[in-house]
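Quick illustration for those who missed Monday's session on complexes.
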Amino acid sequence: MSDDLSIEDIFNLDYLRTMLKSREGEAKFAHLGLGEVRLTENMFELLPALIAKHLRTKGLTPSKRINVRLIVDPVSIFRLGSDVKQDLMILLEASYQARLVVLDDGQPHLHADEAILQRALQAIIGADCIVSLGGGTITDIAKFAAHHANIPVHIVVQTAASVDGYTDNFSVVLQNGVKTTLTTRWPDAVVVDSCLIAAVPHHLNAAGFGELMSMYCAPGDWFLAAKLGMDRNYIPALLDFLAPCGKDIEIWSSDFGRRDGQACAHLTKALALRGIVTGIGGTTAPLSGMEHLFSHMLDMIHGHDHEPMGLHGQQVGVGSLIRGVAWDFFCEKMQENIPSQTRLFTPIASFESRVRDAFATLDPTGRLGDECWLRYRKKLILWHEAKDKVLAFFQNWEKYRQEHNRLTRDAGTIAHYMRQAQAVMHYHQLTPSLSREWLHFVVANCQFMRERFTIADLLTLTGWWHGEHVAQVLDRVDELCHDAGGSMK
Ligand SMILES: [Zn+2]
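Prediction with zinc ion bound:
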């Protein structure tokens, strides 16, 4: 079936809608509310007609009475040597009542925390249209604000192929210091300027390649969650829809590593399709498992150390390898012995001090520990309620292991793709830098920060995720990166 779909179909959303309709029997998909995706060589030629069209669609007549806000962060962006934000303001002011909204929290990379979200919301009240220009964070903030302020039109201008969140209706925000995914709003249009994307430093687009790697491990976590009774909304059709994202990756990943413009455009389209699939599935679960928890925890650590945030996709790429190795480790442990029922269903309360103690390191006030224990406790309750499914999973282990492996790629293959793409694969290469101690902390405790079930939970609940186990997994990741030529041992 996935042969019916290609990444070029992101430019033909009506076709995607028809296809979704034909598969309605399999699952209930969310409405695909994205207006259009446009890949252009010059956004300044495209935008005037595009904005006018979407205003008309919402019953608004383009004129000087229309209020438009351009939402950006303070980072300078240049296109062919010219300041993009300035040029876009000139373009908007020519036809509309336009105002520039610069969101700045004083940090090198903007955080989508409560204060910034409120500031964005205030700044766009009364607007008819917002145009957001930037990366994933500014897009998420703009989607959140447009949703809550009921802004008729939201146009997204994407400035790097760094994440997949441009084309979905979710925003990842910080709530009580913890990353949370909220359903917000589909953009009316997502505009990609190939000239702009090709000009950004390789490490930004390579972060997008790291983000892409989650498609080779997160479906495994989602599958485990479904089979263990921890996620009742497993929709295999969504994984079919994602298949075109990885088509011919063996070839185009090395082109991408050589900074080829076509390969860069390919990555942009693949990420766009991922965003769309996430939106129609109504969940980020197919593409967000342990590797995303790893990234979210890193953000938490950097927040704690008052350091700038690292690149989301870069962290997800590193996390994808760790997740792949964690799965191999679990499979080996299962060959040694099957965990007993008593081990699998340890009393819920026995985890409380482990969770609270872990997060007290980051936040001695206990606020973070409260939030994480609240989330983890819910997961544990569900685990105990799902006892029959859990036991059936262990009884049918070999069958499920094979099914899992059909949905993922092994860690060595992921490392190979990342090496070809010249993407960061080892924690030593991350910015800001991360000590081995903090790496260990993140990997050992990431499962405690979110309700979503991953291989890290399975390892925790089988008793195979204590200090020595985590250290073994990290040593193997070192070896893997070394063998793939991605890092020193
Ligand atoms: Zn992501």
